[in-house]
């Protein structure tokens, strides 16, 4: 079978002084399944990571993706398995909390059980480390990863299965339905549409909106991430808010303002140079809550449906996963690398896109037999 596509797996260091490295390259017809094809490739690359990089002190944090359904399905399966284990441990923690008559948590329970584990009068030989699920004890937080702790001190040593979606890709996916005529993005009593953005150019002269270009409004290039950044910028949101006043036309731009404000907060989680980690966590909570409430309002509305008036289910789930994994990543950085930057900017699969752009300069790929 002829293969006209290229599949690449890269090692993406989450810091600014190590470049991404190509680990796996293969020809593909793009007709593969998550099992056994993706799982086998993940196992091979993980085994090589454990053999080469883990002895150097490197931690395999997780897998990044750009929205491909096969890889995302594996990410959700790993999270679901971890969630089931976490639920079982949480139930045990509640029982022991009443027995010990003191507040406790899951990590403390496992830590104490390993320290007190005896058989008769002989102490059982236990491992120096233990691995268990990690999540955030907050309502609505559903993402679960795996963390390894030191048996003696209870300190976190590493975190893995911290799956993520590429924030640049998700930012573009959040903007695309507003540019499309196939969907009518209804939020409350208002419509969110990119048509309102043309009012911004009509309201101010070119010099005042120099950051907003005609090509951004027309979205000739759907892969232009910088255009999404400009469209969701503070100036555009302020102007759209001003246009709602009767003195400036009384335009019904409330829906567009709400959605682009949400997109802005999502992008700031990963790419802001000024926000503190606490503000990024607040932004992640805002985005998740906004999308969930919007989804519920459309789903249970008698005259609306999710297919025509909301984001696709895949995009909705991917953004939630992206926000929650970012929060866990910040927790991991706090515990594991407190003296280094929190490299949210490097999360995702953008390094693969850069590589494909470089390869594209070589000319088209011929068929591989």
Question: How is the topology of this model organized?
Answer:
Layout: E1 5-11, E2 21-28, H1 34-52, E3 64-65, H2 69-100, H3 106-116, E4 118-119, E5 122-123, E6 129-134, E7 145-150, E8 156-160, E9 164-165, H4 167-179, E10 185-187, E11 190-192, H5 197-203, H6 214-218, H7 225-231, H8 234-242, H9 254-271, H10 277-299, H11 306-309, H12 313-336, H13 350-360
Parallel strand pairs: 3-9
Antiparallel strand pairs: 1-2, 4-5, 6-7, 7-8, 10-11
Helix pairs in contact: 4-9, 4-12, 8-9, 9-10, 10-12
Concise structural overview:
This protein has helices at 34-52, 69-100, 106-116, 167-179, 197-203, 214-218, 225-231, 234-242, 254-271, 277-299, 306-309, 313-336, 350-360, and strands at 5-11, 21-28, 64-65, 118-119, 122-123, 129-134, 145-150, 156-160, 164-165, 185-187, 190-192.
Would you give an account of this structure?
It is a single chain. With 369 residues, the protein is an alpha+beta fold. It is 50% helix and 12% strand. It has 13 helices and eleven strands. The chain has helices spanning 34-52, 69-100, 106-116, 167-179, 197-203, 214-218, 225-231, 234-242, 254-271, 277-299, 306-309, 313-336, 350-360, and strands at residues 5-11, 21-28, 64-65, 118-119, 122-123, 129-134, 145-150, 156-160, 164-165, 185-187, 190-192. The strands form five sheets. A three-stranded antiparallel beta sheet has the order 6-7-8. Strands 1-2 form a two-stranded antiparallel sheet. A two-stranded parallel sheet has the order 3-9. Strand 4 (118-119) and strand 5 (122-123) form a beta hairpin. The longest helix has 32 residues, at 69-100. The model is unreliable at 117-125 and 365-369 (pLDDT under 50).
């Amino acid at each position: 079978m002829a293969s006209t596509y290229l599949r690449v797996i890269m090692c993406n260091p989450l810091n600014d002084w190590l470049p991404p490295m190509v680990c796996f390259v293969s020809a593909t017809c793009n007709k593969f399944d998550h099992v056994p094809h993706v799982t086998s490739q993940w196992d091979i690359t993980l085994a090589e990571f454990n053999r080469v990089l883990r002895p150097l002190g490197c931690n395999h944090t997780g897998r990044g993706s750009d929205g491909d359904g096969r890889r995302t399905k594996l990410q959700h399966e790993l999270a679901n398995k971890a969630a089931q284990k976490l639920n079982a441990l949480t139930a045990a923690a509640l029982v022991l909390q009443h027995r010990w008559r003191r507040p406790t948590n899951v990590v403390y329970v496992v830590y104490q059980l390993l320290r007190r584990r005896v058989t008769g009068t002989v102490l059982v030989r236990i491992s120096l480390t233990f691995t268990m699920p990690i999540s955030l004890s907050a309502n609505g937080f559903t993402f679960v990863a795996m963390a390894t702790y030191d048996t003696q001190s209870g300190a976190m040593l590493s975190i893995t299965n911290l799956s993520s979606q590429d924030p640049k890709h998700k930012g573009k996916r959040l903007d695309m339905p507003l540019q499309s005529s196939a969907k009518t993005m209804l939020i409350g009593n208002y419509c969110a549409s990119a048509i309102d953005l043309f009012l911004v150019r009509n309201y101010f002269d070119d010099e005042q909106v120099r950051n907003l270009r005609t090509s951004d409004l027309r979205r000739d290039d759907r892969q232009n991430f910088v255009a999404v950044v400009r469209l969701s910028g503070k100036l555009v949101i302020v102007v759209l808010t001003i246009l709602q006043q009767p003195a400036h036309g009384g335009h019904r731009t409330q829906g567009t303002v709400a959605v682009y404000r949400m997109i802005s907060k999502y992008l700031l989680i990963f790419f802001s140079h000024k926000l503190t980690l606490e503000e990024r966590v607040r932004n992640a909570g805002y985005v998740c809550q906004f999308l969930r409430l919007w989804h519920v309002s459309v789903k249970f509305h008698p005259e609306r449906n999710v297919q025509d008036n909301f984001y696709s289910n895949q995009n909705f789930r991917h953004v939630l996963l992206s926000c929650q994994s970012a929060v866990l990543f910040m927790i991991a950085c706090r515990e594991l690398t407190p003296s280094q930057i929190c490299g949210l900017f490097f999360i995702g699969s953008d390094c693969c896109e850069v590589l494909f752009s470089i390869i594209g300069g070589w000319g088209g790929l011929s068929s591989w037999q």
